[in-house]
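Worked example 4.2. Below are the chains of a multi-component assembly; read each line carefully before continuing.
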Amino acid sequence: MAITKSKRYINIIDTTLRNGEQTAGVVFSKHEKIRIAKMLDEIGIPEIEIGTPSLGAAEREIIKEIVKDNFNSKLFVYCEAEPENIEYAVQCGAENVIINISTSDIHLKEKYKKNKTWVINKLKETIRVARQNNLNFIVSAEDATRTDLGFLLKLISIAKKKGAYRFRICDTVSKFDPFRTFLYISTISNATSFPLEVYNHNDFGMATANGLAAIRGGAANLVVSVGGLGEGTGNAAMEEIVMALRYLENIELGIETSKFREVAEYVARASARAIPVWKAIVGTNVFAHESGIHADGVLKNPKNYEVFNPSEVGLTRQLVVGKHSGSHTILHKFKEFDIELTDKQANEILALARAMSIDLKRPLFDKELMYIYNEYTKKNKSRKEQ
Amino acid sequence: MREIDLLTEFSKKAGTEIDPKNIKIDDTTLRDGEQTAGVVFANDEKIYIAKMLDKIGVHQIEAGIPTMGGDEKEAIHKIASLGLNCSVLGWNRAVKSDIDASVECGVDAVAISISSSDIHIEQKLRKSREWVLESVKTSVDYAKSFNLYVSVNAEDASRSDMEFLLQFARTARDVGADRLRYCDTLGILDPFETFMRVKNIIDIIGIDIEMHTHNDFGMAIANAIAGIKAGAIYVNTTINGLGERAGNAAFEELIMALKYIEGVDLGFNTTLFRAQSEYVARASGRILPTWKPIVGSNLFVYESESKASGILSNPETYELFNENDVGLERKVILGKYSGVNTITYKLGTLGIKISRKEAEELAEIIRDKTVSSKRALFDSEIIDTYKSYKGKAGKNKETKRKVRDGNNKK
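Applying the procedure described above to all two chains together yields the following structure tokens:
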């Protein structure tokens, strides 16, 4: 690669249990929340957002239980800027909080119906209570990418002065592409030299790319969620960020990626949102090869069409026989069944398999391939006998 | 390019204006989309998809692989003779017989594909770089003899040695190819690398570039846009991002990102997006995730108090475009994260007016209900919850009155 990437420490904070659950229609049970927190801890996610204490007694019970556990991950709870919400966090035994407040003119005008001074005061008031309770806190600016830059810098300087852990910049409406993300984050990073964290949404399919652009721009922390679960189109997917950092940016987070499929599957079930078979990194189809060109390439050397080995994310490679298959796939498939075909046989069976697959509008099951083979050999035999 | 120079160049491109006339979409749902393991379109489906793409306004359709023969060839032939406004392209290996098949289908454009990376040349083709360049020459030359528009595809371009890729591009240009398709076959580039490499080819060779990106690390769209910022003109998309492994750059995402983030309006009929995506989802047997960017059914559904409050006051608080723009519907549902505003609004739509105090009390009841049923509530359940709440509240009042009356009697 032409670009040298300096080694630096990059942190991720997973919000599956907070913004993930906030997805319209998604609810985790207590048991599921605790299980997901444990899984994230076990695979080595450095920080986890575990919930929203102001949501009521039931949510606070769950948070309390997770906090009590001996996690390696640093645990955060989420509070809209309001002193009362910090009290709720304290009741749960939380030590780290995220204090969120909208900062864009449109949100101030249309959602809060307040002005900038109100935002500053509300933030200061909330921070005061957090400090009184010895909580670590992140200040989170919602809709930061549509916020007046001067105002945002002012809020960052307040956060810095009051001892915030870091500052979160939310691209709430997916306003940015990687170019703007880079410019915006590097501008802010240069102007404040305060630790930044970036929160992306996937409205135009660019959450992961924007995350990487933010890192190049100087942010060292990214907000992610398993499978990208989150409101609307969701967030930057944890598994995409971790693998992209490893393979594209040469930054190793030391996370146990071989459990990715398992974690993704658990979250998919708990959220009742099946993982699409083509989901980047963890979809079952990502290592399935059908087309003659690709399957042939993979058989000769997996590196022809794979960047990493499927087992690295807990998946397996599959060869699928369908309309686009070539004779190499057939030869290989039948070898798996302990049948050695000649090239001529493979070509003839391929023609039959393709026709059948077009007819069925899907690839063939292994059984169907065997039927084709049996009929094919029978016909040939009877032809010979005649 | 040194990193510092790249980053300067890169940030300069944030917010630069792009002329919509310079951007063209070549959709490959019917070729790379169908090449996805497990996906087969019926011929009628292919024709329907082609017509829909044309109606929406796409510039070129990659209709399939003529050399596969049979049904595939027939479908391409039919699409080419539909009299569409867009160009119809056939996909070929760099082999004369493939091009003959394309000519027989009556397409006006061809993609001629050959690997340019050493790993593919050595391990897959088992040939040499010289052989590759020679194949480009002869096949482009041959295609040009039929007056076809030619896109030369550098397969696995992103793992190719840059010097050789430049030689490859120069060969294609000199022999008369109309454009070079830069294939990030494995989806291994980030937007920075994409930008730098594409810019390099354009600066040095000066051939039209088409971006073919894959989503293996979730960056297909971002990389396509990085290519455009570097000067690429064409983008190869698929509806829903359908394509091998993690898929390609999704047509609908790219069009909307261009329109709403880059300010490039291609004038496509976006209101058909949901219908189109649904059709392809069914034909490919790959259900649309409810959270799919642009066309997912859950995108304009609001549950959380924070978002719903904003949206109800002004949709622009959380939306860059609205549901009608892509053929979706807006909805408010009640769940664990709903609060006073959301509940008041939702009950209002069901014909029930409530006070703030009632909304506060209901919020708690509704939260408990959604947690125990592990989903948002149906409308009938919401009405039911309200009725039993009113019933209880009414009873409380009545008991109070009875007690008071009793006291009075004493």
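Take a moment to check your reading of the output against the notes. The mean pLDDT of chain B is 93. The two ends of chain B are 96 Å apart (CA to CA).
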